[in-house]
């Protein structure tokens, strides 16, 4: 019997993009259901009653929530194709550590750059670039964080690319010049169809960001 796989998603979501990339890397067919987060569907509320957030992967009627947990679930269930985590326990632990760093530190600084007032924003921009440089050091000379193949850390991090145009417009950032190795890594990731077709268009993200900032009353920050 064929698996029934449904993804509750929202197109601008970098968290949803992580799951899209993982599913594409594994070659898994699924039904995507777009959510309106202003009016959450009964299915979303039923499948994620605690946080009421996307993404939610529904596998044969059972929900899995939180993007990185979903990606690990995908790796565990479909472990016979395109591994996303190394086989050695130590290297698996390291991959989880850096994915957690992305989840906590990069997201925190990204949020500050995007929403802070001018003085706070300048500090956040500097810290954001420093965090990316730390990740550049971790990448080293490898093709991907996962080595020769796209892996768990790559999937955690690359969806932020979709928001770079908005970062650079709203803040005083030039990620390409500040972090050239990081930028080269992004370009390598985008050469993979699993990534390029899973990320939202940067211009659409920018337009979405402008409208959202207006609603939040922060349209003048960084401009």
Strand-helix topology:
Layout: E1 5-9, H1 14-26, E2 31-34, H2 42-47, E3 56-59, E4 62-65, H3 67-77, H4 89-115, H5 118-139, H6 152-157, H7 164-170, H8 175-178, H9 180-190, H10 193-196, H11 202-216
Parallel strand pairs: 1-2
Antiparallel strand pairs: 1-3, 3-4
Helix pairs in contact: 1-3, 4-5
Family: Belongs to the GST superfamily.
EC number: 2.5.1.18
Function: Is involved in the conjugation of reduced glutathione to a wide number of exogenous and endogenous hydrophobic electrophiles.
Spans with pLDDT under 50 lasting ≥5 residues?
A: none
Strand order of the largest sheet: 2-1-3-4
What class would the helix/strand composition place it in?
alpha+beta
Number of E-state strands: 4
Helix count equals: 11
Largest sheet: 4 strands, mixed
Radius of gyration: 18 Å
